[in-house]
Amino acid sequence: MRYWLRYYEKSRLDVREKNGYLREKVPLTFLAQRGNVQTAKPTTEGLIYLATEDNPAFLGEASLHDIAHQIAYSHGPSGSNKAYLLNLAQALRELGTVDAHVFAIEEQLQRYQ
């Protein structure tokens, strides 16, 4: 699965992630078959955003409860962080990807109606 970003899409990401995140370019390798490195396709450049400890919004080491609480009551330029996390969890399921940490936060967030 690849996503090609046009300039205006990258600009929107920069706005969404503007709260002290570092933007880094990294090499990405896509596997034709899950878990099979021998089926890797050529490497391409990817874009990630990193939160660092000097970011005032960085929570640091925290329990799932504390993470969910912060997400439940935080909003950014793209909307509620709760909606973002719930949509992320749904998208991961649709892609057949398991992320135990995201799903555990999602479970905690269900308590914040």
TrEMBL record:
Gene Ontology molecular function: any one: glutathione specific gamma-glutamylcyclotransferase activity
Keyword Lyase among record annotations: yes
Gene Ontology cellular component annotations, sorted alphabetically: cytoplasm
EC numbers, comma separated: 4.3.2.7
Taxonomy, superkingdom: Bacteria
UniProt enzyme class: lyase
Entry keywords, A to Z: Lyase
GO BP of this protein: glutathione catabolic process
UniProt xrefs under PANTHER family: CATION TRANSPORT PROTEIN CHAC-RELATED, GLUTATHIONE-SPECIFIC GAMMA-GLUTAMYLCYCLOTRANSFERASE 2
Protein name per Swiss-Prot or TrEMBL: glutathione-specific gamma-glutamylcyclotransferase
Organism name: Halomonas hydrothermalis
